[in-house]
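User: Show me a protein chain along with its predicted structure.
Assistant: Here is one chain, sequence first, then C-alpha cells.
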Amino acid sequence: MKKTSIILTLAVLFTGCIERSHLDDNQYDPSVYLTHWGLVKTDTFYDVSRSYSAPLYVYCAGYKAADATVRLEYDETLIDLYNADNGTAYRPLPSDCYTIGNDEVSTVNRKGSFNIVFDCDALKALSTEANYSDLEEYVVPFKIKSLTEGVTEKLHEEQSQVLLVPDMKKLSLVFNEAGTSELKYADVVEDAENIYLSYQVYTSVDDNKWDCDVTLHFNEATPGLPYPQLPDGSWELSNAEEKLMDGVSEINWMVVIRKSLIPDPFYSIVARVETDGSFEVLGESVSVYNYQNRKVLSKSALSVTFCDSWQSSTYAASKIIDDNKDTMWHCAFSSSHNGVTSLPYQIILKVNREIYASSFILTRRGDKYVSDLRGGSIYGSVDGSDWKLISNFDFGDSSNTKRELTVSGTEVKSSYLKLVFTTSNRNNIASLSELDVLYR
C-alpha cells in the first residue's frame, strides 16, 4: 500500500510540472467563416415584392474564439476562379440589381450576418425570360475579412468566399380543372333541376401574401371543339371575378347549369382562367369537359326478344348486352348456322321501362376483322311494332379500324330498340361486341 501511494504522488507532481502552453498545441487560432459558402442560391423570392433581403451568416470559431468585427468585400476575381475550376460561365450581376445592407458586422456570441438586398424591378428588367430562368447565370461575388486582431479569415479561406445567385420566381397559380377530359352524367353533382360544376385555382405558395385579380371565363366561343357549346342562358356563374390577397391562397367558383335548357346528348364545356399578370398560370389555363349529357342504361335493363341471324350460342345476340367487349354477336354465314345469311340483319331489345333514347355507343369486335361491320340504323318503339328512326350509323370503309362509334339522332320514347345492320366491309359478314344506350 505504501509503494502504491508513493507512485501516485510522484505522478501528480510530474504532471503539475508540465507547461500549460503545450496542451494548446493542437488548437487552431480564432477564425471567421461564412456558414454558406461557394456557389449559393438565395431562398426563393417573388417578383411581386419590391425587394428581397438575402442574409449571409458569419461565425467566429477556434480555440478561445471571441467576438470579432468582419467586413464584406466585393471581389469579381472570385467569378473567374470559379469558372476556370468548374467549366462554368457565370457573370457578375449588375450593381443596380442589389445593394449591400451592411458591409461590416460585429458578431454577438460569435454570430453575425450581412444582408444583400435585391431589387426585384431591376432583376425583372435584366431578365429576358418569362420565368426569369436566365437570372441563374448571374452571381454576386463576396469575400469576408476579419478586422479584429488575432482573428483570421485565412484558416478557412474557401469558406470565406461566396458567389450569391438570386432565385427570383414569378408567383404562380394552378387551375385545378385544366386540360381536356371526358365527363359523364353519372359523375356530375346534380339535383332535379340543375347540374353543378366547380372550378378551383390555388397559389404555388401555401401562405399567400400578395394580391391578384383572377377571372374565370366560362363558355366563351372556342373553335375546334368536338361538340356544341352550352346554349346562351342555360348556365349561371355567380361571380366571375375573384381576388387572391393576404391570407387567401385559393379561389372556388360554382357554375349552375339548367338541365331543361341543354337538350343535346353531348356538349363541350369550356372554362378559362385569366390573371391580372401579377401571378402566372402554371400549366394550362383552359378546361374542356366533353360532357355526355345522358345516363348510360344498365345492361340489366335490356333483354333480347328477336334476332334473325346468329352463328351459334357463343355468338348470340345477348352478347351485345353482356358488358364484355371480348364477346360478340356474329351473323350466320353458313347453312349450319341459325337464321338468314345475307344482309340486312335485325336484333330487337326490350327495355324494362320507358326511356327517351337518342344516343348510342357501338363497339365492334377487337381482332383483325374489326372493320367487318360498316353501317345500319337504330329505331325506337313504345309497343314493339310502331318503329321510329333514332339514328343511322356508319363506321366507314375498311380503312377505319376504330372499335367505337358514338351516334346521336332524334330522341324517341322507347320501350323497345331495334338494330338493323345494312352494310358490311366484308361481303355479308356483320358482328357487334357491345351496344351502350344513352338516355334521359
